[in-house]
């Protein structure tokens, strides 16, 4: 079952009287429960494509259908609503609120979703347990290691039960052992039935995915299924 369909999307930026084609023409279909790595050299369009897939940006041409909704032409408010409902983001820099405990960071998306406090906390504890951090729920980000911070961020991404998890270089700020642990967590999240898309420039991180899409100059250069040893 299709969750993402991107048809011949382009994204152009005008800088002065120059036109930069961040994406020339990209077509891509991603099914529910796929595990996809998006690769490519710097400037190939990865961030631009992730921003569009995450409903942070819209293409200048083409069609984007997310979970049966046409999102290419929506207003910023409509995009924000879809984003809150459908997308769980994980960033290289964690992006946690420093004054909030792990629990409150994880529960925050549920505030926007209008859930009442006791239900929010119950759900947040449930996901913190899933990422192995329930015993740290009262800690603030600066009282946690890098790997633990990223676990909090992963829990926050999952808390709303989004349709897709988008991770942009999720291990970019972690040492190799911690990266491995975070990737094991993504593997588990995928095995639990989630759709996972991650941007990485590291081949061994990309090997965790079942499919690798490589961009080059704003075009899909290759799109291959991996025969991964389980
Ligand atoms: P990647 O993530 O693969 O490094 P990007 O999507 O960030 O690639 O960038 C693709 C191209 O589009 C680059 O040439 C970049 O300079 C350009 N670009 C990206 N975002 C903008 C922007 N907001 N304004 C102007 N040019 C941009
Ligand atoms: P990444 O490490 O993810 O490839 P980039 O440095 O390519 O990051 O881009 C970081 C952010 O800045 C992205 O959201 C991208 O759209 C934006 N960006 C990239 N190039 C430009 C540019 N030339 N002008 C304005 N914004 C840009």
TrEMBL record:
One of its GO terms (cellular component) is plasma membrane. Keywords: ATP-binding, Nucleotide-binding, Transport. Gene3D superfamilies: P-loop containing nucleotide triphosphate hydrolases. It comes from the Bacteria. PROSITE patterns: ABC_TRANSPORTER_1 (PS00211), ABC_TRANSPORTER_2 (PS50893). Residues 4-229 form the ABC transporter domain. The keyword Cell cycle does not apply. It holds the Pfam family ABC_tran. The keyword Amino-acid biosynthesis does not apply. SMART domains: AAA (SM00382). One of its GO terms (molecular function) is ATP binding. InterPro entries: AAA+_ATPase, ABC_transporter-like_ATP-bd, ABC_transporter-like_CS, ABC_transpr_LolD-like, MacB-like_ATP-bd, P-loop_NTPase. Belongs to the ABC transporter superfamily. Macrolide exporter (TC 3.A.1.122) family. This is ABC transporter ATP-binding protein. It comes from Salibacter halophilus.
């Amino acid at each position: 079952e299709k969750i993402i369909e991107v048809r011949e999307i382009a994204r152009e930026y005008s800088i002065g009287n120059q036109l930069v084609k961040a994406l020339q023409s990209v077509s891509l279909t991603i099914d529910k429960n796929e595990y996809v790595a998006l690769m490519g050299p710097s400037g190939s369009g990865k961030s631009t494509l992730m921003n569009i897939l995450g409903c942070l940006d819209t293409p200048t041409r083409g069609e984007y259908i997310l979970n049966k909704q046409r999102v290419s032409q929506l207003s910023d408010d409509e995009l924000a609503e879809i984003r809150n409902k459908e997308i769980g983001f994980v960033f290289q820099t964690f992006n946690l609120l420093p004054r909030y405990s792990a629990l409150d960071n994880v529960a925050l998306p549920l505030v926007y979703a209008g859930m009442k406090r006791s239900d929010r906390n119950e759900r947040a504890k449930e996901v913190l347990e899933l990422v192995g951090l329930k015993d740290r729920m009262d800690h603030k980000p600066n009282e946690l290691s890098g790997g633990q911070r990223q676990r909090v961020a992963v829990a926050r991404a999952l808390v709303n039960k989004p349709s897709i998890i988008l991770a942009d270089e999720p291990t970019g700020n972690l040492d190799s052992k911690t990266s491995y642990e975070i990737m094991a967590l993504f593997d588990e999240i995928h095995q639990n039935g989630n759709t996972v898309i991650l941007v990485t420039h590291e081949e061994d991180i990309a090997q965790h995915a079942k499919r690798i899409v490589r961009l080059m100059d704003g075009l899909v250069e290759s799109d291959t299924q991996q025969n991964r040893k389980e």
